[in-house]
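Q: I'm teaching a short session on how sequence maps to structure, and I want students to see two examples side by side rather than one. Could you give me a first protein with its sequence written out and its structure tokens following it? Keep the formatting plain so it prints cleanly on a handout.
A: Of course. Example one:
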Amino acid sequence: MSQILSGKNILCGVTGSIAAYKTCDWVRSLKRDGAEVNVVMTESAAKFVAPLTFSALTGNRTYCSMFDAQDEEKIPHINLARCHDVILIAPATAQTIARLAHGMADDLLSTIVLAGEAPIIVCPAMNSKMYLHAATQENIKKMKRYGYSVIEPECGSMACGEEGPGRLPDWERVRSELIRSLSEQELAGKTVVVTAGPTEEPIDPVRFIGNRSSGKMGYALAEAAKQRGAEVILISGPTQIAPPAGIECVKVRTAEEMYREVLGSVDVADIIVKAAAVSDFRPRECHARKVKKTEADLTVALDANRDILQKLGEIKKEKAKAPVLVGFAAESENILEYGRQKLEKKNLDFIVINDISAEDSGFAVDTNRVIILDRKGGEIQLPLLSKEETAHRIWDAVIGADL
């Protein structure tokens, strides 16, 4: 279980939309991520979801009125504005968006927004015609000018029976933006290239040589770099993972395709992270039609694929201003020894080693336990973490190194 939001205080503002029930799951997710969550509801929101529901989910009192007699001496709209790291308003109705756009302070939530200095994330949810109305669109533009982050709604079928934009945004998009708002933007102005996933080397139209890489670690590294302000190019082999929003994703299949794409990105990249599990070999012959069992040769001749990381290391020796290189090593024995050899042989700045013999680390799982080595002899051993947390710790090491 991720604890990426441990120590963070999040205020969730819930307004009067049928989508308010979805925010219950969002609050649960924030709690699972380690955040302390408080909820403020508008009067209309309390007609869709009982305040007691959010109190049970957060373990905290749910705030509904600016003039609540309980703890009235603490001035809720001031204290709640001061003590939170981010304010998430979801769902945000047309009425609430109009309030925020015009700086009104006629309920507890809008007053907190005016009194606070924390980043504000707004997630519109409403009927399509209401969302597309010129007044709502103008109000959204005003909020963006104030510096509020507005996450555009999804398109689809809504409770009113209409189709179109207006559905509450997907939680993963919102969660990523929330983490970004809480992250230092150390990679702002940098272009980061990340490779992820396996490659597939075809034998015939239906068979291939591949490996067990899921792409989860590479995708997590790309997402974390984006959350820290980078422009990210993700070069991905075949995976079942949806590309992260706001990231340029280049899809490839074979090692040769990945070689061409990575080498083509060298001149624009400030940092290259080679997290993909690239096949070392490819079949010498790829049959144009499916090979039948009755005619199959039990021997498949293999040729070596070009070593992408080795080539990048060679380029690094030749270029005056070469990208920082971060390699990965999936090892099952002598992991430190083999990792150091690879770091030196391929002229890397960092290598991230994971022990693939462990059931909870490496391929096709959600957790990882890695060792980070740098070319100056530095060594960081990380505990078992989610791949998301591992990605941020790797970026901590890269950003913080004095190489």
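Q: Perfect. Now a second example for contrast.
A: Example two:
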Amino acid sequence: MRVLLGISGGIAAYKSAELVRLLTRQGCDVRVVMTEAATQFISPLTFQALSAHPVHTQLLDANQENAMGHINLARWADLFLIAPATANCLAKFSYGLADDLLSTLYLAVECPVFIAPAMNQAMWHKPTTQENINRLIRHGMTIIGPDAGSQACGDIGPGRMTEPEAIVQKLCIQNNPGILQGKKILITAGPTREKLDPIRYITNRSSGKMGYALAEQAQQLGAQVTLISGPVVLAAPEHVNTVLVESAEEMYTAVMQHIADQDIMIAAAAVADYTPVNVKAEKIKTQNDQTELQLHKTKDIVASVASLTNKPFTVGFAAETENLKQYAQDKLTRKNLDMIAANWVGQKEGGFDSAVNALQVYWQNGQKIFPMTNKSQLANQLLALIAEKLHA
């Protein structure tokens, strides 16, 4: 694969050297383009040595036969990766500006484009930056990251460039869509509704976005996907067998009807733990200042699957407001799961009804943290990890 790597002017440019090394190790032919600002952070000679090719910095290259190096590079590339991508770089791409080689290449390439943003957390949170990101996503660009953590300026928050290993993993998944080829995956998604009467019900804030993202990405990675979904306002993913249910009991029944011969089960749904003992046939009238509800426990779907004799590789989810690691690892052991993906809810970012999330994933004698990112990318990362553990 021919990878065109664009480097803009940020301190994270030093990470791009490791990117070149990892990509070449994967057998990629890498050509590097740097902005003038990028050369102030790291020498082009470094990338020339690592890639074994000259580094391109000028828009009009007199050494090219037609003096149009940008067109030649654009035609050459199978994939265009910009890492790091500064806020200024994103703004140029978003509005179609072309005043240097890197921004001109973005307009000229016809191959897939991937961007790894890197900037101060305040710049990342700025509405203008988020508008630019959303516009680029609508234009078909894939955004990788950014990660959250301590930054060169001393701030802490999202804006760190995703680590090179994670970027390369993302590119490999995107360009090797068969890592789940032939596998059957059952995914649950969304909330359940537990009826009180013909009008009222008990539910939760789950939007189903994570489960639907998992279903869509799994299908793109070659899997045969069955999605069992509670009530959501999302369109069913294409080429996915989608089964719509409402209550926890209906979801349990649907899962058990479809679980045979599944290779993987991912329980991303937020299933009600309790359901009313009595469902009234008529609307409950408002009379007293206080009332009582009698509830009984619902069937534990993921534990039931994990207890089967020939169980699939079973992945649970845990949404917590405290003691995330402790509760997740307890659930992993107690329910005999192969893996559990845990996330915070009630935080400023991520959780229910959000387009982004972060996960802490645990398995027997192992763990991995996926920083805050959009749920499609997060789904891709989680599925890659599941495929790795399943094949192992």
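Q: What should students look for in example two?
A: Point them to this: The radius of gyration is 24 Å. Also worth mentioning: The longest strand covers residues 366-374.
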